[in-house]
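To fix ideas, we reproduce below one chain and its tokenised fold.
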Amino acid sequence: MDKIYEGQVEVTGDEYNVESIDGQPGAFTCYLDAGLARTTTGNKVVGALKGAVDGGLSIPHSTKRFPGYDSESKEFKAKVHRKHNMGQNVADYMRCLMEEDEDAYKKQFSQYIKNVTPDMEEMYKKAHAAIRENPVYFGFSKQGFSINSPGYPGIHFADQASLEFRTQSSSCLCLPSAEIKGVYATTPGFL
């Protein structure tokens, strides 16, 4: 079906809706389930929706949550949306921050400066072309992952205390009753 319904090949930012072709299977229709995510203007969920629609999926939607929609005039400006699709809003912020405070710029965008080309639009065009060429997602390997790695929440104090209590109480169950009385004989109010 990806050959029949190519989607929007050129990124223009315009609203795009997939229409079924006569004599062919209908376009794949799906519905956005945002779950607990708030679908505010420019949210990642809304960006994923736009990407899926541009990729050829038929998803009922409105342009009200896309960047470029003016709620006062109720008009959608495709040029503004295209700028956001191509990362130009981030590039503009980077240029502004570089002019105002170069140290803050280097601190905030250090990984970007080290790993990415200066032309953000070209980078996104290459990414779009690579996705169209092979849309299969390859997950990241989890080698080197451990409970002690940074970013892993680990055991919380309450869980640790509960674990220690369970360990102690299970070891008491293994002791003969005379030893248990001896352990707790010094505890006031026991027996």
Q: What stands out?
A: The CA atoms of residues 141 and 149 lie 15 Å apart.
